[in-house]
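Example record for the data management plan.
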Amino acid sequence: MQRQTISHSPDFAPQGPQRRVDLDWVRIGAFGLLIVYHVGMLYVSWEFHVKSTHRIAALEPLMLVLNPWRLALLFLVSGTATRFMLNKYRVGPFLRARSSRLLIPLISGMLVIVPPQAYEQIVESLGYPAGFLDFYARHYLAFGPQFCHPGPCILLPTWNHLWFVAYLWIYTMALGVVLVAMPGLVGRLERSVAPALSGAWLLIAPSAAFAVYRIVILPNFPSTHALFGDWYNHAVYATVFLTGFLLARAETFWDAIESQRRLALSLAAAMFLSFLVLRWSRDSATPPSLVLRVCGGIAYGCYQWFCIVAVLGFARGWLTADSSVRRYLTDAIFPYYIVHQTAIIMIAHALRGRDLSASLEAGIVISGTLAVCVLTYEIARRITILRPVFGLRLEASGKAKPALEAVQPAQ
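Corresponding structural encoding:
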């Protein structure tokens, strides 16, 4: 197989193995936090597909710590992984392989994994009287708005938490088109961007961009995860995906992230406290003033990027040792992600009305979800036909095929 040639400066050539163990750990940790975050959504005041009868107000500040940066971090790691892959393989085969690894789980997930989530949501919110099969046959495959009265319509079928997979596929395909049309562009951009983001601008420029997105785009295009019209999310996630892609090989950029990690963490703490104060002031004002909205957007945008730099910096300094645990979870975490939200919702719905304490209920949801994730992965990896359904590589002659990627993709 011929290699895809992407122009780059010799200054950006990797000095060692291309596998970034630290980024594997970041990906594993980010998906793990996502699972815990979705359990927390049962107990806070924010909307979710189903809700516990318990409310734990103290969880909201803790979840706000994670919410601004957890998914942006995954997109950045995905962009980095994409660059390492394309340093080894031609664009066409790479795009075909990525489409298989992303679209098969997305489509099968929408048809099989996600429908119980939508059903439990309708049962809890509207008291749907018929069973799941009736819901699936009459409503889920309607390809349009359903259950519009009362309340907002629900578009079915839906991808729910699998929106991440759809967005990642779109960004990857768009990048592939650019690489085919302008193969030298990546090198030119890398040589321009890497020096700028290897010093003081590392903390300033992306933070400013995120703040502008928050202030200018979000009020007109609120987050929907519906792909079309979701321009605020596209601005944030496409930016970090492209940043990871362009700077994956720029050692000066990663050195700067590691050297500025403590400063980034300190600034993130200050921005988070400012954001909480501004959020409280905004909620108390009727209506919130323009000054509060602008200051809140700046604090939020800066906090997003400072947290990403801090996480990547500390991971690069501390999480460099490989282990069997890392190798196992690198393969398992994507199947965990695919099934986790359905497990959370179904277990939480089954426990509703059983008069359990919040701690006991949450413990059962967490342990039950973990058990479902582990069991699903252990079954899927042993059955050839199920492997692509859960984003796992096919095996040949009893051995796994060589990995297409130098860094396991944050899928």
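Summary line stored alongside the record: The chain has one domain: 19-114+159-400.
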